[in-house]
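User: I'm writing a short methods note and want a consistent example. For Lipoprotein, I'll paste the sequence; you return only the structure tokens, no commentary, since I'll be parsing the reply automatically.
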Amino acid sequence: MNRFFIRSVLIALSLLPHSLPATASEGSCYGYLTELVRSSDFPFRYVGKDKVNLLIDEDDGEVVRAQLFFDTDGTGTIGWIKYTPATRVLLNSSAELEEPVALSFDAKFADGYAKCLAEQQAG
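Assistant:
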């Protein structure tokens, strides 16, 4: 696969409902979620944490599932995460779907995400 193909697929995915890049929509709380993942102990092997973005695959209000990707000279998928806001559990679901690995992260981003969601629901 070449860069053009991968980039085209990501652009097409971003047009689907709930498949928006985490920092794409103004008024979204996904920026907090992006920073939460960047602050985690996810094994970022191919790129610096600051280059990682999220492509939201699912957000049903109880669980957020997202693809981690980066865009440098080409676009690449790093892995997948699952975040449960109610319990503040972040899982690396990349390798073991049956037994995802729990990740630690900076709680201030979970606080910010929760506060943002509450403000959106109230407002």
